[in-house]
Amino acid sequence: MVNKISIQKLKNGSQAEFKQLVEHYKNKVVNTCYGFVHNYTDAQDISQDVFIEVFESVGRFNEDSLLSTWIYRIAVNKSLDFLRKQKRKKRWSELTRINIDDRNEADNWFTDTGSPQLSLEQKERVKILSTAIDSLPESQKSAFTLHKYEELSYKEISEILKTSVSSVESLMHRAKKNLQKKLTKYYLTEKEGNNASF
Fold first, then answer.
1. 134-189 pLDDT, tens digit each
2. CA geometry: angle at 144 spanning 118 and 175, to 5°?
3. CA 148 to chain CA centroid, nearest Å
4. CATH architecture assigned to 1-108
5. What string of DSSP letters covers 99-130?
6. How far is CA 163 from the centre of its chain?
7. pTM of the prediction?
């Protein structure tokens, strides 16, 4: 149980207490990171950075929020940092990819999200959805990911993002509206139209 984790022992550098914390939160943190980066290996790597940050900065944790809220906040920030770095790398790689052959270009279409058994259409759907989510402003993406991937309440999200519940409601409304716009054309071709739910 999370209640058995002693913040004081963590601050005192207890390895056993930190190990217990990692065991309790590792799946939640990986899932949260995956919701941002859509790649399980990257999500695992980011989650390691999250726990390193937790271990190194727990002494400065002033307990003005729940421990879980604080850890989620670090996971969100680490994930967003990763995406910013990836965007910079992507801009550079696009400049150096001009001479890439058609076969390699086709290989880049397939992502790590989804199983190998997925059909091309299913992989295309996953790619389009992931791209649409990635294109959201950071605040909207954070709220949407925490709500849809981690199923956190608006109140929990407001504490993680350090904002009001009404602001989270507004972020979710705008995120859904933006995703609806981005995906309508695709879903209409699939005869799903506005039946797509978020």
1. 889 999 999 999 998 888 999 999 999 999 999 999 999 999 999 888 888 666 65
2. 100
3. 10
4. Orthogonal Bundle (1.10)
5. T--HHHHHHTT--SSS-TTS-HHHHHHHHHHH
6. 18
7. 0.73
User: Token digits for 166?
Assistant: 């009404």
Evaluate whether 56 touches 74 at the Cβ level (below 8 Å): no
Which tokens is 53 given? 């940050």
CA distance 76 to 158: 13
Residues in the chain: 198
d(CA 75, CA 35): 11
> Which residue do the tokens 């039946």 mark?
195
Q: How far is CA 45 from the centre of its chain?
A: 13
Residue with tokens 């507004």: 170
CA distance 42 to 107: 19
* Span(s) in the chain for CATH 1.10.10.10: 111-198
For the domain made up of 111-198, the CATH class stated in words is mainly alpha
Distances (CA, A) of 108 to 11, 105, 117, 138: 45, 5, 17, 25
Concatenating the DSSP letter of every residue in 154-174 gives HHHHHHHTTS-HHHHHHHHHH
- Residue type at position 49: D
Q: How far is CA 197 from the centre of its chain?
A: 19
